[in-house]
Every structure is written in structure tokens, then in C-alpha cells.
Design brief:
It is built from five helices and ten strands. α1 runs antiparallel to α5.
Length: 171
């Protein structure tokens, strides 16, 4: 029963006691579910990786196909990594913009052998000093592959969670 205390301020103390006879059994099932889910992580990562690589290969700009063939998925423990082994993969994903003031070309002689797409008799010309800037707009393919696959990724995880629940008798 509630306890009333007398004094300058009156307060009411309430104690609640809960009895859950199945608590230990439920805790055991949660532990089993966690283990069953963790056993499924490698196959989940393989399925997620295959989806991401496929989407990135669809999205990557292709000139020679080298960048597309360099896209990979690697797993390390419970983590998966989508990437590219190409030297210029990051430049394509994020673009390039180099400051023109840092790209200054000094005057120098140059031998030219073609002009306007036609071969000409070799001629030496003087290149005047000039500033050069490098710009390549971003053409993302890795990050969009991830964001366009969020639905399927969550679907894979949910399906594996349901299988884990069935395995331990909760589904």
C-alpha cells in the first residue's frame, strides 16, 4: 500500500514490483536470435555487395571499360566496402578543379606534326606562357549506387532477420 508521511510537506511513496517468470527464457531467446543474426552477416554482406557493384557498374561513365571493371566489393568482419582500384576512380566520382594560378605553363618550344587534325610537315613553334586550369565535373557512381539500393539493402537485412527469428522459434 502507498505510504503517507507526515511533516511540513506531505508526500506519497509508491513502490512497484514486477514479477516476470519468463524473463530468463526471453533473455535466452534474445541471445539466440543475436547469434543467429550474426551468423547471417557474411551472406548478407555478399548479397548487398553484389547489388551495389551491379548498380555502380550501371552508373559509371564508360570510355574503355577499365573503370567499370575496377569496381569491387570487399568485406572485413562485419563491414563491407564498395570501391575502385582505378587510379582515376576518385577523380571521376568527385571531379577535378585545379586552381589556374598553380598551373602556370612557361614559354617553351614545341614541335608540331599536325594541325586541325591533319598531318603537316614538322614545324617548331614557340608556346607563349599561359595559365592552365584543369576541370572535370563530378560523375558520381559509387555513392549513387549505395543510395539507389537502400530499399533492397533494408530488404536483404529484414529477410535475414526474419530467417533468424524462424531459426530460434520466434517467427
Amino acid at each position: 500500500p502507498p505510504l503517507l508521511q507526515d511533516g511540513p510537506d506531505m508526500s506519497l511513496a509508491v513502490a512497484i514490483e514486477a514479477h516476470c517468470p519468463n524473463l530468463l527464457r526471453m533473455m535466452g531467446q534474445v541471445t539466440e536470435l543475436d547469434r543467429a543474426f550474426r551468423r547471417r552477416i557474411p551472406s548478407m554482406l555478399d548479397r548487398i555487395g553484389a547489388a551495389l557493384v551491379s548498380k555502380a557498374e550501371d552508373l559509371v561513365p564508360v570510355s574503355t571499360g577499365a573503370l567499370r571493371s575496377s569496381i569491387y566489393w570487399r568485406t572485413l568482419g562485419r563491414m563491407g566496402y564498395l570501391g575502385t582500384s582505378s587510379e582515376y576512380g576518385a577523380a571521376v566520382e568527385f571531379g577535378i578543379q585545379k586552381d589556374a594560378s598553380r598551373q602556370f605553363v612557361k614559354a617553351h618550344p614545341r614541335m608540331i606534326t599536325q594541325a586541325f587534325g591533319r598531318r603537316i610537315f614538322p614545324k617548331q613553334v614557340s608556346v607563349i606562357p599561359h595559365a592552365r586550369s584543369v576541370f572535370m565535373p563530378p560523375q558520381p557512381y559509387l555513392m549513387p549506387a549505395y543510395f539507389k539500393n537502400l530499399g533492397p539493402i533494408f530488404g536483404i537485412i529484414n529477410a535475414e532477420a526474419e530467417e533468424a527469428k524462424k531459426e530460434v522459434g520466434l517467427g
